[in-house]
Amino acid sequence: MTSRVILLGVALSISAAMAWAQTSKQQQGTYNVREKVSGKEIFDLITKEGYKPVLGKDSDGDPKVEFKIQGKSVAIFFYDCKKTPLCTNLAISAGWDINKPLDNKKLLAFNFDQRFARASIDEENDPYLESDFDFTSGATLEGFVEWIKTYAGQLDEFESTFKL
Predict the structure, then answer these.
(1) Which of 43, 136, 137, 161 has CB 3.0 to 4.6 Å from 55, enough for a Cys bridge?
(2) Domain range annotation of the chain
(3) pLDDT tens digit string along 90-149?
């Protein structure tokens, strides 16, 4: 009888430990936290999301991925690569070549209402919508995909707000 109780206790302990491990894994997810990412990895992720990206290099030789979101050309620029294929920071940007400058108060109001993107104008008063993604302290590729989805929504809102 005592050995049955001990075996039952051991079995329950193992079962509880396995259930805790399963729950813990589900809560944490199976995400791979990264501190750097390559242009090829981002190209592959964007392709997997259904876009048709082009992988190239910017004027500094760092990766650059260009593709279209809802018909609008965007580019992802890579920073802090330190002459390696792995980079720690990314920025996405879309720009418009317009004839009439945007209303500055409306532009500031748009920025005030946004959390993850910012609107700016260049020296020719052409608007841009930009956002940054930082891998420096650790981020996931799944988080990057969500960032693209968030930017796509903000891009749509920007175009609607300013009738671009």
Answers:
(1) 43
(2) 1-30, 34-162
(3) 999 999 999 999 999 999 999 999 889 999 999 999 999 999 999 998 999 999 999 999
The DSSP bridge pattern shows strands 86-87 and 127-134 to be unpaired
* Residue partners of 158: CB distance under 8 A and separation at least 6: 110, 117, 119, 127, 129, 164
d(CA 57, CA 17) in angstroms, rounded, equals 49
The answer to whether the CB of 4 falls within 8 A of the CB of 14 is no
Q: Strand 72-79's sheet: what is its strand order?
A: 54-57, 63-69, 72-79, 89-95, 127-134, 118-121
Angle at 54 between CA 32 and CA 111, to 5 degrees: 70
Cα dihedral 120/122/123/126 (nearest 10)? -100
- pTM of the predicted structure, to 2 decimals: 0.78
Domain 34-162, CATH number (from 3.30.1460.10, 3.40.50.1980, 3.40.228.10, 1.10.1270.20)? 3.30.1460.10
